[in-house]
């Protein structure tokens, strides 16, 4: 659902702009494979930024709503907090197929002396099928990969999901630069808090 919503607004935006961020809310459950309708609303069109709101409906009921921001790429200051160390994709277990991806699960980082983790989930993922040379398709595929909640273990359940809800309620992504999901990507997640089974 997230990948479809990410793909839908691209044809309505000036081709010089690329996806900058998205903020989505999953409103109701649905069954995979159900026919859905996507609606795109033009919220704003500026010289360097544009915004679109997407809604996804099944049988007339809204199940997902997302606001996306697009930007003309421009230079600026760059800095990044260091990511937790992630071993290479060949240093972990044999990749296993999960949806359209080959995944190499590396587990959480080592527990630090104070009982915390630098990363609560580390993994490599690579799209198995070739993705056309279209940044919007790579963004949609990467977005799909970020919402594989069945495997998004939290600090309290690092190796199992027993008794935990695995449904997404909301989802945000910032696309700081283009990605090539066919090349593979390292994922390092850090869960800051767990409360109320979410």
Keywords:
about 35% strand; about 200 residues; 9 strands; mainly beta; globular; Thiol Ester Dehydrase, Chain A; single chain
The helix count comes to: 2
β content, as a range? 25-35%
Q: Describe the main β-sheet briefly.
A: 5 strands, antiparallel
How many β-strand stretches?
A: 9
Strand sequence of the main sheet, in spatial order? 2-3-4-1-8
In total, the number of domains comes to: 2
Output the structural class: mainly beta
Kindly provide the radius of gyration, computed on alpha-carbon positions and rounded to a whole number of angstroms: 18 Å
Please state the average pLDDT score.
82
Residue share in helix: under 10%
Low-confidence stretches: 150-161
Distance between the termini: 20 Å
- What global shape is seen? globular
Q: What is the chain-wise order of helices and strands?
A: HEEEEEEEHEE
Task: Give the topology, please.
Layout: H1 2-7, E1 18-26, E2 37-45, E3 49-58, E4 61-71, E5 96-98, E6 101-107, E7 121-127, H2 135-146, E8 170-174, E9 185-189
Antiparallel strand pairs: 1-4, 1-8, 2-3, 3-4, 5-6, 6-7, 7-9
Task: Walk me through the structure.
With 198 residues, the chain is mainly beta. Helix content is 9%, strand content 33%. The protein has 2 domains: 1-73, Thiol Ester Dehydrase, Chain A (Roll); 86-155 and 172-184, no CATH class. The strands form 2 sheets. Strands 2-3-4-1-8 form a 5-stranded antiparallel sheet. The protein has a 4-stranded antiparallel sheet with strand order 5-6-7-9, with no helix packed on it. A hairpin with a 2-residue loop joins strand 3 (49-58) and strand 4. The longest helix is centred in the last third of the chain and has 12 residues, at 135-146. The chain is globular, with a radius of gyration of 18 Å.
């Amino acid at each position: 659902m997230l990948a479809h919503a990410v793909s839908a607004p691209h044809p309505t935006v000036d081709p010089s702009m690329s996806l900058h961020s998205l903020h989505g809310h999953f409103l109701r459950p649905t069954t995979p494979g159900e026919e859905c309708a996507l609606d795109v609303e033009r919220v704003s069109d500026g010289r360097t930024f544009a915004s679109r709101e997407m809604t996804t409906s099944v049988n007339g009921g809204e199940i997902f709503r997302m606001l996306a921001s697009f930007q003309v790429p421009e230079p600026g200051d760059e800095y990044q907090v260091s990511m937790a160390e992630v071993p290479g994709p060949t240093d972990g277990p044999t990749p296993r197929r999960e949806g359209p991806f080959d995944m190499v699960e590396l587990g959480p980082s080592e527990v630090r002396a104070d009982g915390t983790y630098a990363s609560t989930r580390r993994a490599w993922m690579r799209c198995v099928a070739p993705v056309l040379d279209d940044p919007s398709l790579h963004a949609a595929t990467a977005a799909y990969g970020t919402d594989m909640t069945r495997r998004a273990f939290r600090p309290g359940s690092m190796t199992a999901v027993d008794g935990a809800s695995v449904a997404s309620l909301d989802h945000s992504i910032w696309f700081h630069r283009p990605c090539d999901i066919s090349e593979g990507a390292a994922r390092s997640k850090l869960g800051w808090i767990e409360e109320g089974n979410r």
